[in-house]
Amino acid sequence: MQSFIYNNPTKVIFGRDTENTVGKEIKNLGCKKVLVVYGTKSVKESGLLEKIENILKNDNIEYELFGNVRANPTLSHAREGVKKAIDFGADFILAVGGGSVIDTAKAIAHGTSNPETDIWDFWTRVKEVEKSIPIGCILTISAAGSETSNSAVLTNEETLDKRGLPTEFNRPKFAIMNPCLTFTLPYYQVACGISDMLMHTFDRYFGDSEGSVNGDNNQTTDAIAEAVLRTIFKNGLIAMKDKTNYDAMSELMWCGSLSHNTLTGLGLSFDFIVHKFGHELSAKFDVAHGASLSAMWGSWAKYCLKDKRQRFIQYSKNVWGIEDNTGLKGIEKTIEYFKQINMPTNFTELGIGVQSEEVLNDLTRRCIKDGKLEFKHFRALSKEDVYNIFKMSNI
């Protein structure tokens, strides 16, 4: 097991009707002027936004609204939010929504606290985040895990560059998690969320543990990750039949946080490789994030199988209960699962069709950031390897 520092200061408030505590939590932090960040239709149509407004009014908390955050959140919209927050004098950012809304709120918080810096400089590592104003969130989609994570993703729509930013300043002060707020989601969004939380765990689990080819000296973290995966697989099927099943939706909501709050990757080094592939697809084609990941995972796994067979054997046994000396059966079972929940496993199923060589080369170039990004953990990947994995999904 590699050395690590684990710090997750986000206060989790989990259960029915927990959104009623939002005013109290904000006041406990000494904040008085709140920018409420949200998405498009659902938060209004469900009545949740009006409910939150009434709570803030009753607690004498000033607020402004900033809506229309879209899936695959954009840099330009986050910049608009920064301007609005500064003009309002916001001292707190409240996200009401899923990962896209929360990531946008994080960007706005950083920009508000650093008005002299363009927020994209943080995402491109030109500048380091050294201060930010606090954020909190009311989660409505179990997926990204952004409610307790140290990361946030934005897309620069001018350059089609989609990037993640890891910093401890991304940790929300509190995360209000009421599974009932996910009951109105379309089943497609439930499935995309399942795919995303699986991949947050996969991209850590399939990493390198120092001094061990097979990762068997990282037993505690492996056991946690495997339990999270089993729980997602089981409850995902239940949720896809009945999205109002409180027990299943609550398990998924908590797994979404556990999968991305760094717990499932402690003691490992990883490239977050399938996310890198998926980011290029969602940036270029504006497809759902979770769908872009499932479309790539099987190709990546099969490509790596020969060199990392023992890890896939462990996965097959400990997650799927399959005794398999090839490692392939666990991969096939996972691909089959994606199909069961109506998630794509190749480009055609993703809805983008078979792509030209020119597009595949462009995706490859962008994925490795013109050679500046090196994939070296788990199974080292060259530019040719990255191209070949994209090509395997190009059916």
Protein architecture, described:
One of its GO terms (molecular function) is oxidoreductase activity. This is Iron-containing alcohol dehydrogenase. Its EC number is 1.1.1.-. Pfam families: ADH_Fe_C (PF25137), Fe-ADH (PF00465). The protein folds into two domains: 11-181, Rossmann fold; 187-393, Dehydroquinate synthase-like, alpha domain (Up-down Bundle). Helix content is 48%, strand content 11%. The protein contains 16 helices and eight strands. Strands 1-8-5-4-2-3 form a six-stranded parallel sheet, with helices on both faces. Strand 6 and strand 7 (161-166) form a beta hairpin. The two termini are 39 Å apart.
Gist?
Its EC number is 1.1.1.-. The protein is an alpha/beta fold and 395 residues long.
pLDDT < 50 runs, ≥5 residues: 211-215
The amount of beta strand, in percent, is 5-15%
Query: How are the strands of the biggest sheet laid out side by side?
Result: 1-8-5-4-2-3
Could you tell me the radius of gyration in angstroms? 20 Å
The ordered string of helix (H) and strand (E) elements is EHEHHEHEHHEEEEHHHHHHHHHH
Can you tell me the CATH class of the largest domain?
Mainly Alpha
How many discrete domains? 2
Q: What is the typical, i.e. mean, pLDDT?
A: 96
Task: Please state the overall shape, judged from the principal axes of the Cα atoms.
Answer: globular
CATH topology of the largest domain: Dehydroquinate synthase-like, alpha domain
Q: How much helicity do the residues have?
A: 40-55%
Class per helix and strand makeup: alpha/beta
Would you report the number of β strands? 8
CATH architecture of the largest domain: Up-down Bundle
Task: Specify the CATH homologous superfamily of the largest domain.
Answer: Dehydroquinate synthase-like - alpha domain
Characterize the biggest β-sheet.
Answer: 6 strands, parallel
Q: So how many helices?
A: 16
Q: What is the straight-line distance between the termini? A: 39 Å
Domain Alcohol dehydrogenase iron-type/glycerol dehydrogenase GldA: 9-179
Domain Fe-containing alcohol dehydrogenase-like C-terminal: 196-392
Pfam family, one: Fe-ADH
Keywords: Oxidoreductase
